[in-house]
Amino acid sequence: MSTTITVIPGDGIGPDIIDATLKILDKAGCDFNYEFADAGLAALEKTGELLPQATLDAIARNKATLKGPLTTPVGEGFTSINVSLRKQFNLYANVRPVKSFKGTKARYEDIDIVTVRENTEGMYSGLGQVVSEDGSEAQAMSKITRAGAERIVRFAYELARREGRKKVTAVHKANILKSTSGLFLKVAREVAAEYPDIQSDEMIVDAVCMKLVMNPEQFDVIVTTNLFGDILSDLCAGLVGGLGMAPGANIGEKSAIFEAVHGSAPDIAGQNLANPTSVILAAIQMLEYLGMQEQAKRILTAVTDVIATGDRTTRDLGGNGGTTDFTQAVIDRL
Fold first, then answer.
1. Is residue 307 part of a domain?
2. 266 and 229, same structural domain?
3. Which active-site residues does the annotation give?
Protein backbone atom coordinates (compact mmCIF):
# COMPACT_ATOMS: atom_id res chain seq x y z
CA MET A 1 0.00 0.00 0.00
CA SER A 2 1.40 3.39 -0.96
CA THR A 3 2.27 5.96 1.69
CA THR A 4 0.87 9.49 1.68
CA ILE A 5 3.29 12.29 2.52
CA THR A 6 2.54 15.97 2.90
CA VAL A 7 4.39 18.21 0.44
CA ILE A 8 4.87 21.94 1.06
CA PRO A 9 6.46 23.44 -2.09
CA GLY A 10 7.42 26.66 -0.29
CA ASP A 11 8.49 30.04 -1.62
CA GLY A 12 11.02 31.29 -4.15
CA ILE A 13 12.98 28.36 -5.56
CA GLY A 14 11.02 25.96 -3.34
CA PRO A 15 8.54 24.76 -6.01
CA ASP A 16 11.40 24.17 -8.48
CA ILE A 17 13.53 22.02 -6.18
CA ILE A 18 10.55 20.21 -4.64
CA ASP A 19 9.27 19.30 -8.11
CA ALA A 20 12.73 17.99 -9.01
CA THR A 21 12.83 15.87 -5.86
CA LEU A 22 9.38 14.38 -6.41
CA LYS A 23 10.40 13.31 -9.92
CA ILE A 24 13.43 11.54 -8.44
CA LEU A 25 11.33 9.85 -5.73
CA ASP A 26 8.91 8.62 -8.38
CA LYS A 27 11.72 7.30 -10.57
CA ALA A 28 13.19 5.44 -7.60
CA GLY A 29 9.89 3.57 -7.20
CA CYS A 30 8.86 5.09 -3.89
CA ASP A 31 5.15 4.92 -4.78
CA PHE A 32 4.11 7.89 -2.65
CA ASN A 33 0.81 9.71 -2.72
CA TYR A 34 1.42 13.45 -2.38
CA GLU A 35 -0.89 15.72 -0.40
CA PHE A 36 0.11 19.27 -1.30
CA ALA A 37 -0.25 22.11 1.21
CA ASP A 38 0.69 25.80 1.30
CA ALA A 39 2.75 27.74 3.82
CA GLY A 40 4.78 30.94 3.76
CA LEU A 41 4.19 33.75 1.28
CA ALA A 42 2.33 31.43 -1.08
CA ALA A 43 -0.18 30.69 1.68
CA LEU A 44 -0.36 34.34 2.75
CA GLU A 45 -1.39 35.39 -0.75
CA LYS A 46 -4.08 32.70 -0.96
CA THR A 47 -5.49 32.65 2.57
CA GLY A 48 -4.13 35.64 4.47
CA GLU A 49 -2.21 33.29 6.79
CA LEU A 50 1.38 32.11 6.72
CA LEU A 51 0.44 28.75 8.21
CA PRO A 52 -3.20 27.84 7.42
CA GLN A 53 -5.09 25.31 9.52
CA ALA A 54 -5.53 23.09 6.45
CA THR A 55 -1.74 22.77 6.23
CA LEU A 56 -1.43 21.93 9.92
CA ASP A 57 -4.13 19.29 9.48
CA ALA A 58 -2.27 17.74 6.52
CA ILE A 59 0.99 17.56 8.50
CA ALA A 60 -0.83 15.94 11.42
CA ARG A 61 -2.61 13.48 9.12
CA ASN A 62 0.52 12.10 7.48
CA LYS A 63 3.60 10.71 9.20
CA ALA A 64 6.13 12.62 7.07
CA THR A 65 6.26 16.03 5.40
CA LEU A 66 8.68 17.23 2.72
CA LYS A 67 9.08 21.00 2.81
CA GLY A 68 10.71 23.57 0.56
CA PRO A 69 12.19 26.81 1.96
CA LEU A 70 9.65 29.24 3.40
CA THR A 71 9.78 33.02 3.75
CA THR A 72 8.63 34.73 6.94
CA PRO A 73 8.18 38.48 6.27
CA VAL A 74 10.78 40.42 8.26
CA GLY A 75 9.79 43.23 10.58
CA GLU A 76 6.04 42.78 10.16
CA GLY A 77 5.20 41.03 13.42
CA PHE A 78 5.05 37.50 11.97
CA THR A 79 6.37 34.59 14.02
CA SER A 80 8.91 32.34 12.30
CA ILE A 81 7.03 29.62 10.44
CA ASN A 82 9.70 27.02 11.15
CA VAL A 83 9.68 27.78 14.89
CA SER A 84 5.87 27.61 14.87
CA LEU A 85 5.91 24.20 13.18
CA ARG A 86 8.44 22.83 15.65
CA LYS A 87 6.34 23.95 18.60
CA GLN A 88 3.01 22.88 17.08
CA PHE A 89 4.16 19.30 16.46
CA ASN A 90 6.78 19.07 19.23
CA LEU A 91 9.51 18.34 16.69
CA TYR A 92 12.16 18.23 19.37
CA ALA A 93 15.07 16.79 17.36
CA ASN A 94 16.69 18.72 14.52
CA VAL A 95 19.05 16.40 12.65
CA ARG A 96 21.50 18.03 10.25
CA PRO A 97 23.99 15.64 8.60
CA VAL A 98 26.83 16.92 6.42
CA LYS A 99 29.00 14.67 4.28
CA SER A 100 31.73 15.42 1.75
CA PHE A 101 30.85 14.90 -1.90
CA LYS A 102 33.60 14.59 -4.49
CA GLY A 103 33.15 17.22 -7.16
CA THR A 104 32.11 20.12 -4.94
CA LYS A 105 34.17 23.21 -4.18
CA ALA A 106 34.41 22.31 -0.49
CA ARG A 107 37.67 22.87 1.38
CA TYR A 108 37.59 19.44 3.04
CA GLU A 109 37.31 15.91 1.64
CA ASP A 110 36.45 13.54 4.49
CA ILE A 111 33.68 15.20 6.48
CA ASP A 112 30.90 13.07 7.95
CA ILE A 113 29.25 14.90 10.87
CA VAL A 114 25.72 14.87 12.24
CA THR A 115 24.53 17.79 14.37
CA VAL A 116 21.63 16.87 16.65
CA ARG A 117 20.05 20.07 17.89
CA GLU A 118 17.39 20.44 20.57
CA ASN A 119 14.60 22.11 18.64
CA THR A 120 12.02 23.47 21.10
CA GLU A 121 13.75 25.04 24.12
CA GLY A 122 16.56 27.47 24.89
CA MET A 123 17.18 31.00 23.69
CA TYR A 124 16.07 30.29 20.13
CA SER A 125 12.52 29.44 21.22
CA GLY A 126 11.70 33.14 21.65
CA LEU A 127 10.35 33.01 25.20
CA GLY A 128 9.95 36.25 27.17
CA GLN A 129 10.94 38.68 24.45
CA VAL A 130 10.35 42.22 25.74
CA VAL A 131 11.47 45.61 24.48
CA SER A 132 11.04 48.64 26.73
CA GLU A 133 8.71 51.41 25.57
CA ASP A 134 11.58 53.78 24.89
CA GLY A 135 13.53 51.12 23.00
CA SER A 136 16.53 51.35 25.30
CA GLU A 137 16.37 47.79 26.66
CA ALA A 138 15.47 44.37 25.36
CA GLN A 139 15.14 41.03 27.13
CA ALA A 140 14.61 37.40 26.21
CA MET A 141 14.49 34.23 28.29
CA SER A 142 16.32 30.96 27.85
CA LYS A 143 14.66 27.92 29.41
CA ILE A 144 16.18 24.43 29.52
CA THR A 145 14.36 21.50 31.10
CA ARG A 146 15.84 18.24 32.35
CA ALA A 147 13.29 16.31 30.27
CA GLY A 148 14.12 18.23 27.12
CA ALA A 149 17.88 17.85 27.60
CA GLU A 150 17.63 14.13 28.36
CA ARG A 151 15.39 13.50 25.37
CA ILE A 152 17.71 15.14 22.84
CA VAL A 153 20.93 13.66 24.25
CA ARG A 154 19.41 10.19 24.27
CA PHE A 155 18.23 10.73 20.70
CA ALA A 156 21.83 11.54 19.70
CA TYR A 157 23.25 8.41 21.35
CA GLU A 158 20.57 6.19 19.84
CA LEU A 159 21.31 7.69 16.41
CA ALA A 160 25.02 7.04 16.92
CA ARG A 161 24.40 3.45 17.95
CA ARG A 162 21.97 2.82 15.08
CA GLU A 163 24.31 4.25 12.45
CA GLY A 164 27.45 2.64 13.86
CA ARG A 165 29.02 5.96 14.81
CA LYS A 166 31.76 6.07 17.40
CA LYS A 167 31.62 9.38 19.26
CA VAL A 168 29.10 11.89 20.61
CA THR A 169 30.28 15.38 21.59
CA ALA A 170 28.04 17.39 23.93
CA VAL A 171 28.49 21.09 23.17
CA HIS A 172 27.76 23.67 25.88
CA LYS A 173 28.73 26.97 27.51
CA ALA A 174 28.42 25.78 31.09
CA ASN A 175 31.48 27.75 32.18
CA ILE A 176 29.45 30.98 31.79
CA LEU A 177 25.79 29.94 31.45
CA LYS A 178 25.97 27.88 34.61
CA SER A 179 22.22 27.41 35.01
CA THR A 180 20.88 26.56 31.56
CA SER A 181 23.96 25.20 29.83
CA GLY A 182 25.06 23.72 33.14
CA LEU A 183 21.88 21.67 33.39
CA PHE A 184 22.26 20.48 29.80
CA LEU A 185 25.84 19.35 30.45
CA LYS A 186 24.91 17.59 33.70
CA VAL A 187 22.16 15.65 31.96
CA ALA A 188 24.44 14.87 28.99
CA ARG A 189 26.98 13.31 31.35
CA GLU A 190 24.30 11.19 33.00
CA VAL A 191 22.99 9.89 29.69
CA ALA A 192 26.51 9.26 28.35
CA ALA A 193 27.14 6.87 31.22
CA GLU A 194 24.38 4.63 29.83
CA TYR A 195 26.21 4.19 26.52
CA PRO A 196 29.65 2.76 27.36
CA ASP A 197 29.98 1.43 23.80
CA ILE A 198 30.13 4.98 22.42
CA GLN A 199 32.94 7.44 23.11
CA SER A 200 31.67 10.55 24.86
CA ASP A 201 33.21 14.00 24.75
CA GLU A 202 32.20 17.46 25.92
CA MET A 203 33.36 20.80 24.60
CA ILE A 204 32.66 24.51 25.00
CA VAL A 205 30.89 25.93 21.96
CA ASP A 206 33.53 28.49 21.01
CA ALA A 207 36.23 25.82 21.06
CA VAL A 208 34.05 23.66 18.83
CA CYS A 209 33.80 26.48 16.28
CA MET A 210 37.57 26.81 16.15
CA LYS A 211 38.20 23.06 15.96
CA LEU A 212 35.57 22.57 13.25
CA VAL A 213 37.59 24.93 11.08
CA MET A 214 41.02 23.57 12.02
CA ASN A 215 40.36 19.82 12.30
CA PRO A 216 36.71 18.91 11.58
CA GLU A 217 37.52 15.22 11.09
CA GLN A 218 37.61 14.79 14.88
CA PHE A 219 33.83 15.23 15.13
CA ASP A 220 31.23 12.53 14.55
CA VAL A 221 27.90 13.31 16.28
CA ILE A 222 27.42 16.72 17.91
CA VAL A 223 24.53 17.19 20.33
CA THR A 224 23.69 20.62 21.69
CA THR A 225 21.05 23.16 22.61
CA ASN A 226 18.85 25.10 20.22
CA LEU A 227 20.78 28.30 19.51
CA PHE A 228 24.22 26.68 19.49
CA GLY A 229 22.91 23.95 17.19
CA ASP A 230 21.48 26.48 14.77
CA ILE A 231 24.87 28.15 14.40
CA LEU A 232 27.06 25.04 14.42
CA SER A 233 24.96 23.20 11.83
CA ASP A 234 25.42 26.07 9.37
CA LEU A 235 29.15 26.11 10.09
CA CYS A 236 29.24 22.38 9.34
CA ALA A 237 27.38 22.97 6.08
CA GLY A 238 30.16 25.35 5.09
CA LEU A 239 32.67 22.52 5.45
CA VAL A 240 31.02 20.52 2.65
CA GLY A 241 30.16 23.26 0.17
CA GLY A 242 27.40 25.32 1.75
CA LEU A 243 23.73 25.11 2.62
CA GLY A 244 22.91 23.75 -0.83
CA MET A 245 24.54 20.48 0.29
CA ALA A 246 22.91 20.29 3.72
CA PRO A 247 19.54 18.70 4.51
CA GLY A 248 17.56 18.89 7.73
CA ALA A 249 15.05 16.73 9.58
CA ASN A 250 12.74 17.87 12.36
CA ILE A 251 11.56 14.81 14.24
CA GLY A 252 8.95 14.37 16.95
CA GLU A 253 7.08 11.47 18.50
CA LYS A 254 4.27 11.50 15.92
CA SER A 255 5.40 13.71 13.02
CA ALA A 256 8.52 14.58 11.09
CA ILE A 257 9.29 17.39 8.64
CA PHE A 258 12.19 17.10 6.19
CA GLU A 259 13.47 20.24 4.54
CA ALA A 260 16.00 22.16 2.56
CA VAL A 261 17.73 24.28 5.19
CA HIS A 262 18.69 27.17 2.92
CA GLY A 263 16.59 30.22 2.10
CA SER A 264 14.03 30.69 -0.64
CA ALA A 265 16.40 32.66 -2.94
CA PRO A 266 13.64 34.67 -4.65
CA ASP A 267 16.21 36.36 -6.93
CA ILE A 268 16.66 33.11 -8.93
CA ALA A 269 13.16 31.66 -8.53
CA GLY A 270 11.71 30.23 -11.73
CA GLN A 271 14.99 30.62 -13.64
CA ASN A 272 16.03 26.94 -13.62
CA LEU A 273 19.20 27.79 -11.72
CA ALA A 274 18.68 26.31 -8.24
CA ASN A 275 20.65 23.35 -6.95
CA PRO A 276 18.08 20.83 -5.62
CA THR A 277 20.63 18.72 -3.70
CA SER A 278 19.66 19.94 -0.22
CA VAL A 279 16.02 18.90 -0.54
CA ILE A 280 16.95 15.66 -2.35
CA LEU A 281 19.17 14.77 0.61
CA ALA A 282 16.30 15.72 2.94
CA ALA A 283 14.09 13.31 1.00
CA ILE A 284 16.73 10.62 1.55
CA GLN A 285 16.48 11.31 5.30
CA MET A 286 12.72 10.95 4.96
CA LEU A 287 13.07 7.60 3.22
CA GLU A 288 15.36 6.33 5.97
CA TYR A 289 12.84 7.53 8.58
CA LEU A 290 10.09 5.61 6.76
CA GLY A 291 12.20 2.45 6.59
CA MET A 292 12.78 2.68 2.83
CA GLN A 293 16.53 2.09 3.03
CA GLU A 294 16.93 0.59 -0.44
CA GLN A 295 15.41 3.58 -2.24
CA ALA A 296 17.39 5.97 -0.06
CA LYS A 297 20.65 4.24 -0.94
CA ARG A 298 19.87 4.20 -4.68
CA ILE A 299 19.11 7.93 -4.78
CA LEU A 300 22.19 8.81 -2.73
CA THR A 301 24.39 6.73 -5.05
CA ALA A 302 22.94 8.49 -8.10
CA VAL A 303 23.36 11.99 -6.63
CA THR A 304 26.91 11.20 -5.51
CA ASP A 305 27.86 10.05 -9.00
CA VAL A 306 26.31 13.08 -10.72
CA ILE A 307 28.23 15.50 -8.49
CA ALA A 308 31.49 13.53 -8.73
CA THR A 309 31.41 13.42 -12.53
CA GLY A 310 30.13 16.98 -12.94
CA ASP A 311 27.44 15.69 -15.29
CA ARG A 312 24.95 18.55 -15.77
CA THR A 313 25.61 20.00 -12.32
CA THR A 314 24.43 23.49 -11.37
CA ARG A 315 26.64 26.57 -11.31
CA ASP A 316 27.32 26.48 -7.56
CA LEU A 317 28.80 23.01 -8.11
CA GLY A 318 31.02 24.26 -10.93
CA GLY A 319 28.80 23.09 -13.79
CA ASN A 320 26.68 24.78 -16.42
CA GLY A 321 23.45 22.85 -15.89
CA GLY A 322 20.14 24.02 -14.50
CA THR A 323 17.77 22.48 -11.99
CA THR A 324 16.11 20.32 -14.64
CA ASP A 325 19.46 19.21 -16.12
CA PHE A 326 20.75 18.11 -12.73
CA THR A 327 17.49 16.32 -11.99
CA GLN A 328 17.56 14.47 -15.30
CA ALA A 329 21.16 13.41 -14.70
CA VAL A 330 20.08 11.78 -11.40
CA ILE A 331 17.04 10.19 -13.05
CA ASP A 332 19.21 8.78 -15.85
CA ARG A 333 21.33 6.98 -13.27
CA LEU A 334 18.31 5.65 -11.44
1. yes
2. no
3. 124, 173, 206, 230
